[in-house]
Every structure is written in structure tokens, then in C-alpha cells.
Amino acid sequence: MATKLVGVLTAGGDTPGLNAALRGLGKAALGEYGMHLIGFQDGFRGLMQNRMVRLDEHALSGILTIGGTILGTSRDKPHKMPVGGKLVDMTDEIVAVYQSHHLDYLVCMGGGGTQKSALRLKNKGLNVVTLPKTIDNDVSGTDTTFGFDTALGIATEAIDRLHSTAHSHHRIIVVEIMGHNAGWLALGSGLAGGADVILVPEIPYDVEKIAEAILARSRGGKRFSIVAVSEGALSVEDAAIKRPIVKRIEKGEGKSDRKKAEEELAEFELAHVGNTMRLSAKLEELTALESRVTILGYLQRGGAPSAADRLLATKLGTSAAKFIHEGKSGVMAAVRGEKVVPVALEEVAGQRKLVPLDHVWFDSARKVGTCFGD
Ligand code: F6P
After folding, report:
1. pLDDT tens for residues 262-303?
2. What is the mean pLDDT of residues 159-177?
3. Residue 42 is among the residues annotated as catalytic for this protein
4. How many helices, marked H, and strands, marked E, lie in the chain?
5. Residue of minimum CA distance from atom 16 in ligand 1
6. 43 lines ligand 1 (CB under 6 A)
7. Same-domain pairing of 267 and 316
8. Confidence label for 253 from pLDDT (cuts 50, 70 and 90)
9. Where does the pLDDT of residue 224 fall: very low under 50, low under 70, confident under 90, or very high at 90 and above?
10. pLDDT band for position 252 (cuts 50, 70, 90)
């Protein structure tokens, strides 16, 4: 059998575990299956620009525990590439680079956006295999994504630490947690860290109800509260504005309405920046308790991957190499229980995995008295 040449890139926001996944893919591809591997820098942008590095044994060594990605990353998409101040469809240029190297496969490690871009390339005839990575855990078709466990640990530790200072000062501390439009990270860390209020995009909140819950704690002698708020959490009023816009985009009826809805969404998102600060100020006003804000931000994406993420990334990386060896294409290596299975990109792309309202974490949180503002 001819030696396969595989290209790999990491795209979207960086995530702990990317290097572990590159190492898993690479070591299995080179050692177990006798393939050759080249990496493209900075996601689809580097692929388009043909910026490549050789990924040999030496390059793959010593990276298991290192955060970020040795390849670099970007959020640029093949069909919306910033070129000369404009967004240009560079899909054909990317196909040409793939062909110029006589690549047999392209492995794309990324979140929801990357899965969509990979499907686009698959539809242009490229052999693509993807891995699901994001701290948001919102990729459809897989039980989980690598990066999530590390971020969950960091956010949980932050909530633990905020408890003692909130307690000492008898304050409300509102802690903003990443997760984009899904509540996995805020819900998971809020539950693990014992937050008193957890606000997630899946459940629109009423600020009066949050204030009532905080005041009830005060009356019971607990003069501090931790509010874990997802960056995408919405008040009932904001959800009533945003959800219909998102529906219009998802339905995609007519190019011009879609474009208009996208503009309206961008405007909404801009106005939503600072939501956590406004929420904190409102809670201070309604409860007469001091309130402070902590935004965890990029801390949640930095540093070494947890043991669970190293295991997951290694498992997914080595499985991707196996899928390539078996000639599987147009698939994402997905986690199903203990197994890794190939899932067609058509089933993954364009879907977002939110926390189901009947998820056991919601149930457990409610049973320990957590307020969701509903
Ligand atoms: O997808 C990961 C994530 O960290 C989200 O939680 C967050 O909304 C987003 O990326 C931030 O994006 P950027 O790195 O482009 O600022």
C-alpha cells in the first residue's frame, strides 16, 4: 500500500489538549500506520497560504502537557477569509494547496465552526477527518470535546476561591464563565463549585427572581452569594429579542433576510457585551448588598491540559489515524461512552449541542437549591 500523506491543522479558539491530540494523531500515523504528516500553521489561513511545518517524531516529542497549539490557530474560514480588507471565498485556493502537496487526507481539529468548514472542503472532494475540540463542549454528535474538562477544572477552582472572599465581605460575587451560547461550562463549574445562582443561555433569567433568592439566603444568615453566569446567558427580555433572530438565521429563508438577521444578531451581541456588569449593578440595587464581578475570560483556555483531556485527546488523535488507515473520510472522530466512532460531518456541521433541560446536572443543581433565575 502506498504511504499516505496527511495534513493537519488546528482551527478556532485554542484549547488545552490540542498538542496532546496532535501527538496522538502523529505518533500513531507515523509509528503504527507508516504515514507521513505535515502541519499547516494558523488554521485554514495557513493552509490557504501554504505555510507548513514537518511533523516528524522530533516535532511531536515533549508536547503532551503543553497548552495551546504548536501549529497556531485562527478563526478564519475557507469561504470567508479576510483578504485585502474584505471577506473572500478562498475555498478553491485551499483545494489547490491540498492538491499541490498530493495530500491523501486533511485532519481538522476544531469546534463547531471548524466542522462546518471541514464539510465544505469534503464537498469539494477532499478527504477530511475532524476531531471535536472546544472548552464550550457544544459540538454535536459527540458526548464531549477535549478542552472542556480542563476549563471546567479552572472555572471550578475560581469559584472555590471566590467563596472565601465573598464570605469575608458579605458580598455577592458575579463570576462570568465562557461557553459561547451553551451553558455546559457555567453549569458544570457552578454545580461543582457550589454556586448559589447559575445562569445559562438555555434558561432565560428574571433578575428579580435572582435577587429574591439572594435575599432569602441573607434572611437565612448566609450573607454572601456566588452567581455563576455564562457569557451567553440572557434575561427573559433579551431572549425574546435574540431567539427569533437566531431562528431566522437557522431557517435561512432568502439570502437577504438571512443577511439582515445576521446584522441584527451582530448588533445584539455588541449591546450584550457588559451584560455581567449590568447584572451585578442591578443585583446590588435590588438587594442592597455589595456586588463585585470577576470575568474569568481566557484563563479558562490557558495552560496544561487536565489528565482527562490528555486521555481524551490522545484517544481521539490515535483513532483519527486509525480511521485514515481504514480509508474512512468525511467523518468526525466522536466520543460515545468509552468508544470513539466515526460520525458523518453532515450530522455534525451546523448543529449546536446545548445542555438539554432534562440533563441530570440541572436536576441535581435544583435539588441542592441552586437558583436559575426562572
Ligand atoms: O469557543 C471557545 C471560546 O473561548 C468561547 O467560550 C468564547 O465565546 C470564544 O471562544 C471567544 O473567542 P475569541 O478567542 O475569538 O475571543
Report:
1. 999 999 999 999 999 999 999 999 999 999 999 999 999 999
2. 97
3. no
4. 14, 13
5. 13
6. no
7. no
8. confident
9. very high
10. confident
Tell me, yes or no, whether 122 and 221 share the same domain: no
- Ligand 1 close to Cβ of residue 13 (< 6 A): yes
Closest-CA residue to 27 (of 329, 322, 311): 322
Q: Does the global pTM surpass 0.85?
A: yes
Q: How far is CA 266 from CA 245, 249, 263, 307, 332, in A?
A: 10, 12, 5, 37, 29
Distance from the alpha carbon of residue 190 to the mean position of ligand 1, in angstroms: 19
The answer to whether the CB of 179 is under 6 A from ligand 1 is: yes
Which three three-digit cell numbers place residue 147? Answer: 478542552
Q: Would you say residue 341 lies in a domain?
A: no
- How many domains are there within the chain? 2
How far does the centroid of ligand 1 lie from the alpha carbon of residue 173, in Å? 23
Q: How far is the CA of 197 from the centre of ligand 1 (A)?
A: 23
- Ligand 1 contact via 69 beta carbon (within 6 Å): no
Active-site residue, selected from the candidate residues 42, 76, 136, 196 = 136
CA of 67 to the centre of ligand 1 (A): 16
Q: Which helix (H) or strand (E) holds 109?
A: strand 105-110
Phi then psi for residue 205, to 5 deg, are -110, 155
- Residues 6 or more apart whose CB falls under 8 angstroms from that of 211 comprise 282, 283, 286, 287
316-370 confidence digits (pLDDT tens): 999 999 999 999 999 999 999 999 999 999 999 999 999 999 999 999 999 999 9
Q: Tell me the chain's radius of gyration from C-alpha atoms.
A: 22
- Say if residue 102 is in the same domain as residue 179: no
Closest listed residue to residue 305, CA positions, set 294, 295, 316: 316
